[in-house]
Each structure stands twice: as C-alpha cells, then as structure tokens.
Design a protein that fits this description.
- This protein folds into 2 domains: about 160 residues, Jelly Rolls, CATH 2.60.120; about 110 residues, Homeodomain-like (Arc Repressor Mutant, subunit A, Orthogonal Bundle), CATH 1.10.10.
- About 45% of the residues lie in helices and about 15% in strands.
- Strand 5 and strand 6 form a beta hairpin.
Length: about 290
C-alpha cells in the first residue's frame, strides 16, 4: 500500500515542530504515511505496535523512537492508559544541514541523526531519564524549546542503550524519484503559499504536464493539489491569528487568499469555525 504524504507545518519563527497529545487530545491519525522530516516520538506508557517500513515492533510501557525522513510508518501512540501521553518532535533536513552541521561540536549528534535512518528504539532507562525534558516542551518558550531539544539530542547521542529496527539503511523500495517530486511540490507551496500558485509552473518545474502532475499528486496524497494548498494556507492563517490579534483581512492576504468569502469557506471547512468566530473565541472580540 502506498503511504499518504503528510505535510508537516511548523509555526512561524521556529526551527522544528513539537506537539503533545494525551488521551483527551489525541493526535489526528494519518494512517500509513510518509514525510521528509526526521521524527522523535516519546510515548509515556501503554502497549502498542510500531509499524515502520517493512517491520513491526511490539512495545510495552511506552517507547522512545527516532526515525529519519521518508520512511513510511503508521501512528505510534496508544490510548490504553487514561494518563497516556505522546510528545512528537519533527525537524527538517535543512535544520540538520544548515544549522547543526555548522558546529563541529555536534559531530556526535549528527552521527546519531544519520543512524536514525535505521530507526533507533531506545531502552526504557533512557526513556525514563528523559521524561522531564520531553514534558518541559509544554511550558517552554521557543528559545527554551530549542535549548531543551539540543539537550535531548546531546543525551541520546551519548547513549548506546538502544537497538535499531533495520540492520542497513536501505529501508524501502518506494520510488525515490516520486518521493523527491512530492517533497519538491511541498517545498514549492511552503515557499510560495502567500503568492499566486501556478499549477502549470510547478508542473513544468517537476517535469510534468499539468494533467499528469494533478494525477501524480492525487495518487500520492489521496487528495487534490488545490485541497492541499487551501489547507496549508488555512494552517498558516491560524498561525498568524495565534501570533497576534490581526484583522481577518490582513491574515487573509498574508496566507495567500484574495477573496474574503472563499477564505471564510475554506477556513470553516478545515477549522470548523469562520475566521471572525475563531478570533472571537481566542481573543474575546471580533476583528474585521
């Protein structure tokens, strides 16, 4: 079964993404999916099954797993315990190549990141030791989160208390060219969501005709390219609203929409409320 491509949208002014879930606010399931970002998942407790590439791995009492990008996998968490908790950290290859690689002091961390292509599952002793670090993400500001994340990577890079799910780094037979093209399509949207996005231009850039690109994108993601762009833009709109009490019109243009009624329909489709009501719920007043 071909995995569904999952776009990872970072908050503005951040280098990586952190999300926390519990039994009441569980992660929306993505099913069998793939994304280019590296991922560290901390599951506090409960039993479950990791399904990664061609392998499965049964865990008890939670799990701490680190896997590289472009490895198909299912969701890791479980809802067995009322106090279940899952913390997910995701970061891009640019974070590794453009930031961590600049510092020779991070050699051990970079080696760990390369090792994640084999999928690293850490022992319970390390998982228990790092619980407070993962839990701290919920209360830290962006600067504190980055320092905390580097501390976690430092500790993991010094540990040999782990096993790898794969003996080699050749994890999948999924077509690399298809994954690369999908990554390029996502990067194009990420860099141009605030502009007029041309399907003809991105198709030409990736070596497709317009119709063949649309078929390719639908085959890989189970959705149309326009649907993907609209949801991405709505996600950006939510980020802009959350940063400050901006007007609907300002956020509409910043996130790439040009028509007020169309923006309202798409926002309600993906968020369940209109932009004005979202602002009212968040800030207690309407903004126009």
């Amino acid at each position: 079964m071909k995995p569904i491509y999952e776009p990872i949208i970072q908050d503005a002014n951040t280098s990586f993404k952190v999300e926390s879930y519990n039994a009441e606010s569980k992660c929306d399931t993505a099913g069998w999916h793939i994304h280019p970002e590296f991922e560290i998942v901390y599951v506090k407790n409960g039993a479950g099954v990791l399904k990664i590439g061609s392998k499965t791995y049964d865990y008890e009492n939670g799990v701490l797993v680190f896997l590289a990008g472009n490895i198909p996998h299912s969701d890791f968490g479980n809802n067995e315990k009322k106090d279940s908790e899952e913390i997910v950290v995701q970061f891009s290859k640019e974070f590794v190549h453009d930031k961590l690689a600049l510092f020779p002091e991070f050699t051990r961390v970079n080696n760990l990141i390369q090792k994640s292509r084999q999928v690293i599952i850490f022992e319970q002793s390390i998982k228990g030791e790092l619980y407070n670090n993962f839990d701290d993400f919920k209360t830290l500001d962006n600067q504190g989160k980055l320092i905390n994340f580097l501390s976690i990577l430092d500790r993991l890079s010094k540990s040999d208390a782990y096993e790898t799910l794969f003996d080699t780094i050749n994890l999948s037979r999924f077509k690399k060219n298809e994954i690369w093209r999908l990554e390029e399509a996502f990067e194009y949207v990420n860099n141009n969501y605030h502009k007029n996005i041309s399907i003809a231009k991105i198709s030409l850039q990736l070596g497709f005709t317009t119709n063949s690109f649309c078929r390719f994108f639908k085959k890989m993601t189970k959705r149309t390219f326009i649907d993907f762009v609209n949801e991405f833009r709505v996600g950006k709109a939510v980020q802009f609203f959350n940063e400050n009490n901006s007007t609907v019109s300002d956020v509409m243009y910043k996130s790439g929409f040009n028509d007020r009624s169309y923006f309202t329909r798409q926002f309600k489709r993906y968020q369940g409320v209109t932009p004005s009501n979202y602002l009212k719920l968040r800030y207690g007043q309407l903004a126009i």
